[in-house]
Design brief:
The radius of gyration is 22 Å and the shape is globular. Helix content is 37%, strand content 23%. The chain has 3 domains: 3-147, Alpha-D-Glucose-1,6-Bisphosphate, subunit A, domain 3 (Alpha-D-Glucose-1,6-Bisphosphate, Chain A, domain 3); 164-353, Alpha-D-Glucose-1,6-Bisphosphate, Chain A, domain 3 (3-Layer(aba) Sandwich), CATH 3.40.120.10; 367-449, Alpha-D-phosphohexomutase, C-terminal domain (TATA-Binding Protein), CATH 3.30.310.50. The two termini are 26 Å apart. It is of the alpha/beta class. Strands 1, 2, 3, 4, 5, 6 and 7 form a 7-stranded mixed sheet that branches. Strands 17, 18, 19, 20, 21 and 22 form a 6-stranded antiparallel sheet that branches. It has a 5-stranded mixed sheet with strand order 9-8-10-11-12, sandwiched between helices.
Length: 450
């Protein structure tokens, strides 16, 4: 079993290339043994709609059952529905079979102990267990249970949309469409669905709303039909993307700013968490509106732990992960976040494009992913940190965020792909290019040295 599929906060690799069928059975035994060590017997198990998902459910279950785990199989669900199932069924943990937004030939596993996903060194312990053998043995059980009904009822009772809305939804052929569209219609929203049928080959575009190309059809629908907004989900629906009535994307950091303004009206002084890719405008705006905000590392498990430590009411990532503790459980859920957004949209007659018009104008790039082998990506980032910190202010919470009076540049290692993630922001296009040239030059220098 290849070690590099054991990543920062999940296990993920290419089906039948990096992960064999026997690997999945072994992984089931390793996860079952790990859960046993933590006193976890009764778990929920979910999967997304990838072509390998049913097979992986059977193989993983074989391993889990051999360790005596009691499995509640919640079927094909969004990752947030798996999280919800742990709360709803009062399970002791859970496993989600998904590779999120990665292409259809990938699959992977997210593991929960209690109500938290494991990450970092705990993921590496699964690798160690898989190599050492000596798995616990027992006779487990598996039963199929429905979580769609309870989840839909709970969400519908939580959300209050006060006037009719017209929006488009692009689910990217992932698991979100069959859940989100009926929920929205139940709440009185008129929905134009795009790619809301599940198809694990993702034939229309990869289910990643951070990539502009993937929003092309959504933007066309919103502009062509005169809709109030467009909503997009990633493959397992733990992330959300939004476009305004003019077809302009509202990135995750600006969504967080919108939600924070609303929450601060009811909770003055509330604490929020952003991550290193977020705009400086976000940090400044939360403080301007009487809130507190912490910059933290990218990654759903890392952010959820920091929320638990700090009592933050909301956290968010540039990529569209939105973690509501306010009126919710604290985990990231693209559908729930989109419905909280629709609540705000229904509460005003102001077009979405005007909501943040009072922010200082900034020029920024979206996330830029640069191919970089898993074996060296963290070494490249370390070399950039060392190089640039000698001359500039560098925040090293997660990678290197290089600060200037009029902008910043970021380079960090992706936790999910063999890639570096870069982002830049400045007060003008020319200054943006200068910062980008500086940071990208340092990256190239580091890659050459390795």
């Amino acid at each position: 079993m290849e070690r590099n599929i054991f990543r920062e906060y999940d296990i993920r690799g290419i089906v039948d290339v990096e992960i064999s069928d026997q690997d999945v059975v072994t992984l089931g035994k390793a996860i079952g043994t790990y859960l046993d060590q933590h006193g976890v017997q009764r778990i929920t198990l979910g999967r997304d709609c990838r072509l390998s998902a049913d097979r992986y459910r059977d193989l993983l279950s074989e391993g889990l059952l051999a360790t005596g785990r009691r499995i509640l199989d919640v079927g094909v669900v969004t990752t947030p529905m798996l999280y919800f199932s742990v709360f709803h069924f009062e399970a002791q943990g859970g496993v989600m079979i998904t590779a999120s937004h990665n292409p259809g030939n990938y699959n992977g596993f997210k593991v929960m102990v209690g109500k938290s996903t494991i990450y970092g060194q705990e993921i590496q312990k699964l690798y160690d267990l898989s190599q050492a053998g000596g798995f616990v043995s027992g006779r487990g059980s598996r039963e199929e249970v429905d979580v769609l009904g309870p989840y839909s009822d709970y969400v519908a009772s939580n959300i209050h949309i006060t006037r009719p809305l017209k929006v488009a939804v692009d689910a990217g052929n992932g698991t979100g469409g069959p859940v989100a569209v009926p929920l929205m219609r139940r709440l009185g929203v008129e929905v134009t669905p795009l790619y809301c049928e599940m198809d694990g080959t993702f034939p229309n575009h990869e289910p990643d709303p951070t990539v502009m190309h993937n929003l092309t059809d959504l933007i066309a629908a919103v502009k062509g039909q005169g809709l109030q907004a467009g909503i997009a989900y990633d493959g397992d629906c733990d992330r959300v993307g939004v476009v305004d009535e003019k077809g302009q994307p509202i990135y995750g950091d600006m969504l967080l700013a919108i939600f924070a303004r609303s929450i601060l009206q009811e909770n003055p002084g509330a604490l929020f968490i952003g991550e290193v890719k977020c705009s400086q405008n976000l940090y400044d705006d939360v403080k301007k509106h009487g809130g507190r905000i912490l910059m933290w590392r990218t990654g759903h498990s890392l952010i959820k732990q920091k929320m638990a430590e700090t009592g933050a009411l909301l956290a968010g990532e540039m990529s569209g992960h939105m973690f509501f503790k306010h009126r919710w459980f604290g985990f990231d859920d693209g559908i729930y976040a989109s419905l909280r957004f629709l609540e705000l949209l229904a509460a005003t007659d102001q077009p979405l494009s005007t909501w943040l018009a009072d922010l200082p104008p900034m020029v920024s790039t979206p996330e830029i992913r640069v191919d970089c082998p898993d074996e060296i990506k963290f070494k490249v980032v370390a070399a950039v940190q060392k190089d640039l910190s000698a001359r500039y202010e560098v925040i090293e919470v997660d990678g290197a965020r290089v600060n200037f009076p009029d902008g910043w540049g970021l380079v960090r290692a992706s936790n999910t792909q063999p890639a570096l993630v870069l982002r830049f922001e400045a007060q003008s296009g020319n200054r943006l290019q200068e910062i980008r040239d500086l940071v990208e030059g340092a990256v190239q220098k580091a890659k050459r040295s390795l």
